[in-house]
Automatic annotation (TrEMBL):
Record lineage: Bacteria, Pseudomonadati, Pseudomonadota, Alphaproteobacteria, Hyphomicrobiales
Main location: membrane
Protein name, as recorded: Flagellar biosynthetic protein FliQ
Keywords, sorted A to Z: Bacterial flagellum, Cell membrane, Cell projection, Cilium, Flagellum, Membrane, Transmembrane, Transmembrane helix
Membrane-spanning ranges: 20-41, 48-69
Recorded superkingdom: Bacteria
Organism, as annotated: Bosea lathyri
Gene name, Swiss-Prot/TrEMBL: fliQ
Gene Ontology CC, one term: bacterial-type flagellum basal body
């Protein structure tokens, strides 16, 4: 395997990682920001208040985006399997 092929596999892996994990991270960021804004406006400084809405939102997003994430990971595995089988 040449260095160019290794870089292609690594680049493809990073892109797939961002496609699979990105939506969940964005949901967690938005929910955390919204809860922090509510905390600042109401002056409620409970540190554990952020976790429950964030967990519920991330699990909901996971259920919504799981087919997309599975397709992205399966496609990447298929491309890797082809490279292994062809010896590239």
């Amino acid at each position: 395997m040449t260095s160019g092929a290794v870089i292609d596999v690594a680049r493809d892996g990073i892109i797939v990682f961002l496609k699979a994990g990105g939506p969940l991270m964005i949901v967690a960021l938005v929910v955390g920001l919204a809860v922090s804004l509510v905390q600042a406006l109401t002056q409620i400084q409970e540190q554990t208040l952020v976790y429950v809405p964030k967990i519920i939102a991330v699990f909901g997003a996971l259920m919504l985006f799981l087919p997309f994430m599975g397709d992205a990971l399966a496609g990447y595995m298929g491309r890797i399997a082809v490279r292994i089988a062809t010896g590239e």
